[in-house]
Amino acid sequence: MAHDHKVLSTRAACLAALRSPALTSNPGSDQANLLFLDGQAHARLRTVVWRMIARAEPLPDAVRERVEAIVRGLGDEFDLVADFARPIAAAVAEAVLGVELPPRVLADLEAVTANLDAWFGEGGAADTAALRLAMFFARAGVLPEAAVTEEERLVTPVVLAHAAVENSRNFLALAGLRLVTERRTRDVRELVNEITPARLVYRRATEDVTLAGHAVRAGETVAIRLDAGLPFGSGPHACPGSGVALAEAEVALRALARVLRPEHRVRNVLFGSHPVFYSLESAVVTSGD
Ligand code: HEM
């Protein structure tokens, strides 16, 4: 992908960019996607999404128990992605969306890279998956709110489900890998800062602007690095699910620490290759050789 944009990497410039009204989140296409809206329209839809996320905050006992049961059910050999991170991220997303997510829906969610393809004009298979997901959530009656447009009603559950599943799955798997290899329990905030599952977000300048000393010209796209201690972003689009993400990780990692035995080893560690989403494809934890 040859993309022409400036990369901001100092924490001050990244913070300034995330909070600057001179930058838009809209890549110039989709108007109904929460991630791409600005100003009033964004604030209105974000309130709707907040109400859904509040279903899982604080983490309900039933979700906590489901997460613990998933971890207790791990056998002598298990995959940190397929058997640990994915089902846990799905359980939490189900609580937020109020609907079960069957395997084919999870597969479609993993094929959607909602906040990126629109920036680069590359949809393809991801667009087809997003369309199937929109139909699934519409049929399930997710988001019956009056305060949204018809298009927002279709797009919002897909954006929310993707945001919740993708980043949480990646974080849980990578944090689980650290637990297995380092054998010490860490503070989840420190872990998410270190891992930064979403590496970059994109914005476009609507006017000439200087961001902590970095000049950006009107029309230019900037890539904002989040690994400068901003794992949940900042400003109007800052992750509304950060509390849920940290709570689910705390329960999941504590439960994982309890089932790990001294003879457990990890093998077949395979990392994802996506430039934005830092991820594990698989990592097998086994007590045999
Ligand atoms: C460790 C896990 C997570 C990480 C690292 C993460 C990271 C982020 C980041 C960096 C953004 C900002 C995107 C931008 O500025 O363009 C974001 C937005 C968002 N996240 Fe998360 N997230 C996580 C988990 C979750 C969960 C569990 C939920 C839902 C329950 C969620 C829902 C959302 C939504 C709806 C947005 C869009 C907000 C907006 O555009 O106003 N995220 N997330």
From TrEMBL:
Family: Belongs to the cytochrome P450 family.
Alphabetical list of PROSITE patterns matching this protein: CYTOCHROME_P450
Gene Ontology terms for molecular function: heme binding; iron ion binding; monooxygenase activity; oxidoreductase activity, acting on paired donors, with incorporation or reduction of molecular oxygen
InterPro entries named in the record: Cyt_P450_CS, Cyt_P450_sf
Protein name (record): Cytochrome P450
